[in-house]
Amino acid sequence: MAKKKTVARFMAVFAAIMIFSSSNITAASEELIVAGTPIGVKFSTDGVVITGIRPINDAGDSPALDAGLKRGDVITEVDGKRVSDAAQLGEAIALFDGEQVEVGFIRAGKPMKTTVTPARDEDGRRILGLWIRDSASGIGTLTFIDPKDLTFAALGHGICDAESGALLPIKNGSVEEVTLTGITEGKAGNAGELHGFFSGSRRGTLTDNSLSGVRGKLDKIPTGLENEIYPVGTKNDVSEGKAYIFTTVDGGGRQMYEIEISKISPDSEQKNFTVRITDKELLKKTGGIVQGMSGSPIIQNGKLIGAVTHVLISDPTCGYGILIENMLGEQTARISSDIAA
Q1: Which of 82, 90, 91, 229 is 20 to 30 A from 123 (CA-CA)?
Q2: Longest dimension (CA), the chain
């Protein structure tokens, strides 16, 4: 049996402008399987993400800072050679002693280059003066599955580095089964969260990370969802008033809960309407929207019209939702500063 491991929920803070390829899911899909079940995602980044600048001495000097590198940049090359992870970056930098080296990186979706002179740390290792990341994992909610090819979308928002806010580019990743173990209730000023662990069973592959969520392909349809097929609604089908979400927050499994939709902004790329939790049972369990509920599908008038994406820290009973047609299409990340559910 796989060892139980508690993992952190995504608290994505958007602070980058990056473009990622779309999945095979298209807006032409007329009917989709509506999920609302938890999933775990694990992935390696495509390049090395700079999460912070690290001073190498008391004066605050950093070769990376002198070279103009910033938090959120993604290092992809050193001396013209591809680097995919932290180990490769370290090996490449170790070849240069007191010499300038050309570093290729991605900033705001654009390839750029700079030169940097590695320094030595107290142990004699050559360093750039950076904090970096090359992998991530977390728990979210599966929004829908296309029954034709088992492609899926989840979260309704991108997975970002918690420190820098940079959207993390995916090199490869997997989707795994999750067991929920508890809830931290959301309160004004403090985001709640779902707790759980990866149970060790692989469920599919992860291929995309964009503003509108993560995408990939499942190995099979999860048990119990085979007949949960709903027509896809457009922005013209969304109206202020009562709606419902499917979500899973405890051992009771996937449940439908009542919500209220207001302040519709169909032309926005991500925050298309406001969601208020009105279901007394869900409010009692979670206090409202909590981290891990991102991606919970929204049903209105019998159609799948969107998904929950964010929670308002000042009022956890409220948050935002994204139109399903935006999750179906290719998205470009834009700047935001909210904590994602």
Answers
A1: 82
A2: 66
